[in-house]
């Protein structure tokens, strides 16, 4: 990913968004990294291209907000995916 491919904070509404659909792979990678106990700073560097040492506050916001959205997808958002096409 490049810095222009994502928002600092994904949408937080109760409905699946185009942003969510476009970032499904990212959400899965975040969940996988958390399950593997990967260091969040390394995850942010790899997935978002952000150096947590240079910009720690932004890096943490990006990581936690996207991980929260990924977790929401596993509980609620996936239901909307099952109802229709991704495009």
Protein described:
The longest helix has 28 residues. Helix 3 packs across helix 4. The chain has 87 residues and is mostly helical. The protein has one domain. The chain contains four helices and no strands. Helix content is 62%, strand content 0%.
Core attributes:
DUF2285 domain-containing protein; 87 residues; 62% helix; 4 helices; mainly alpha
Number of domains: 1
Q: Helicity range of the residues? A: 55-70%
Largest sheet: none
Strand content: under 5%
Separate helix tally: 4
- Overall average residue pLDDT: 88
**Helix-strand sequence:** HHHH
Shape: elongated
Rg, Cα atoms, Å: 13 Å
> Whole-Å distance between the termini?
20 Å
Organism: Methylorubrum zatmanii
Protein name: DUF2285 domain-containing protein
In short:
This protein is mainly α and 87 residues long. It contains four helices and no strands.
What's the structural blueprint in terms of helices and strands?
Blueprint: H1 18-22, H2 24-35, H3 40-48, H4 56-83
Helix pairs in contact: 2-4, 3-4
Protein name: DUF2285 domain-containing protein
Organism: Methylorubrum zatmanii
């Amino acid at each position: 990913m490049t810095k222009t491919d994502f928002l600092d904070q994904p949408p937080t509404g109760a409905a699946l968004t185009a942003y969510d659909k476009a970032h499904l792979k990212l959400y899965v990678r975040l969940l996988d990294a958390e399950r593997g106990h990967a260091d969040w700073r390394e995850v942010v560097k790899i997935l978002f291209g952000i150096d947590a040492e240079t910009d720690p506050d932004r890096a943490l916001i990006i990581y936690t907000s996207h991980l929260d959205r990924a977790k929401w997808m596993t509980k609620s958002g996936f239901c909307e995916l099952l109802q229709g096409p991704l495009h």
